[in-house]
Design goal:
The protein is an all-alpha fold. The chain has one domain: Monooxygenase (Up-down Bundle). The termini are far apart.
Amino acid sequence: MDEWLGFAAAAVTTLGYLPQVLKAWRTRSVQDVSLGMYLVVTVGSALWVWYGFRTGAAPVAAANALILVQALLVLAAKIRYA
């Protein structure tokens, strides 16, 4: 039960980044996107993925792997469209 709760929380949290990813790539407007914030999120998510794998915390690893991908997509848009 606890692991399912973790996956549910991970899914909801991960979906929170999707609107920014879609908006950045659709509009090609990233003027108001904070480069610093997404750099921090990228590093933090990578560390959480590493932690999740090392401790066997699958929900932590999975959620942060998805967040990492989304943060990298926003960073790519920021670099490409800035």
